[in-house]
Design brief:
This protein is α/β, with parallel strands linked by helices. Helices cover about 50% and strands about 10% of the residues. The chain folds into 4 domains: about 110 residues, Conserved hypothetical protein from pyrococcus furiosus pfu- 392566-001, ParB domain (Alpha-Beta Complex); about 70 residues, Orthogonal Bundle (Arc Repressor Mutant, subunit A), CATH 1.10.10; about 60 residues; about 35 residues, no CATH class. Keywords: Coiled coil. It comes from Kumtagia ephedrae.
């Protein structure tokens, strides 16, 4: 029976030495490594980017890499000695089984060659090759017709060696399916069917008129993940829109202009916000040095200095006013003109 990934104990993310990670156990399920992607990741890591943790299986002695080959190589090229890793408990075979379904929803998108390589990894294994096409498809995150096609292409001459039973999983039930009849011609019918009976398509049990092929096709569609069905629907919608694209050029042009105006407005707003943030740069430094207490203490000191300055200038002003009044009186006693000390105008003369 498959070592279902759901039964693996959930570990925790930690940092381990790259030199301790083993990549030589056949756990790489891709067709080949994409060196352009490694270079792109390495440049980002060197610039300070943080990538999701890789996944390794620890058997008590070795860390077997199951997911993250591009990330590990990129860290090495960036001069890093350690990498973040989600550590799960398991053997090298657990890592292989995990790897065939990796990158289904993240990382570098798998090519058809990558998917085929993952399927072959299980078909070439003595234990896993006995699984049904659907179970292998579930582990590799592909469609079961894809598995059946690869199985037929790579083992057509072994048809007579098909085992009498195959491990099959339906929902949560696992059982052995009798496969003795696979590849064998059916017994000749006792009577040749009439043309009328041949023309009638097989009808399902519900009497809906669907042929067996239609029923299989509907079952395949129903088993697809919702995300894939949504993507196919969006693709069909995009194709329909493309057919009427010439009539929508003016509308799309107006929309592009509108979006450009919105981008310009957002850039202006962003510049204003940056200027506003710059006003509080000094306060931020104070906060980083001592928290709110430091900010408040510095503001209190500024207020104290300003109060002292106001008091000193007030005293100076009073002193100047007294001195001016004294000189005014002396000038009046000598018979000189009177000057308003506030406006500087001659009062009489």
């Amino acid at each position: 029976m498959p070592n279902a990934k759901a039964t693996l104990p959930i570990g925790k993310t930690t940092t381990i030495n790259i030199s301790e990670i083993r990549t030589d156990g056949g756990t790489q399920s891709r067709w080949q490594c994409n060196h352009d992607t490694v270079l792109e990741y390495a440049e980002a890591i060197a610039a300070g980017a943080t990538f999701p943790a890789v996944t390794v299986f620890h058997d008590g002695k070795h860390y077997w890499l199951a997911d993250g080959f591009h990330r590990v190589e990129a860290h090495q090229q960036a001069g890093k000695r350690k990498v973040g890793a989600l550590v799960l408990s398991g053997t090298c075979r657990d890592a292989i089984l995990y790897s065939v379904g990796a990158n289904h929803t993240h990382g570098l998108r798998r090519s058809n060659s990558d998917k085929g390589c993952a399927v072959l990894r299980l078909l070439n294994d003595e234990e896993w090759s006995k699984w049904s096409d659907r179970e292998i498809a579930r582990q590799c995150n592909v469609g079961h017709p894809f598995v059946a096609k690869i199985r037929a292409e790579h083992a057509p001459h072994h048809l007579e060696e098909i085992p009498d039973s195959r491990t099959v999983k339906r929902c949560e039930t696992t059982y052995q399916m009798n496969t003795r009849a696979i590849g064998k011609k059916p017994a000749a019918p006792a009577e040749v069917p009439s043309p009328a009976s041949i023309a009638q398509p097989p009808v399902d049990d519900a009497g809906s008129g669907l042929t067996e092929a239609d029923a299989i096709r509907a079952e395949i569609v129903a088993e697809k993940p919702q995300a894939i069905r949504d993507m196919e629907a969006a693709k069909a919608e995009a194709i329909d829109r493309r057919k009427t694209a010439p009539a929508d050029i003016d509308r799309l042009t107006d929309r592009i202009t509108e979006l450009e105006e919105q981008v310009s407005a957002l850039e202006t707003e962003n510049a204003e916000l940056k200027a506003e943030i710059a006003k509080y740069g000094e306060m931020r430094v104070q906060f980083e040095q001592g928290g709110f207490e430091k900010v408040l203490a510095d503001k209190d000191e500024e207020i104290r200095v300003l109060k002292t300055r106001v008091a000193r200038e007030s005293e100076d002003k009073d002193s100047w006013r007294r001195s001016a009044n004294a000189w005014k009186k002396k000038a009046e006693s000598l018979g000189t003109v009177s000057i308003d000390i506030n406006t500087g105008e001659i009062v009489d003369g």
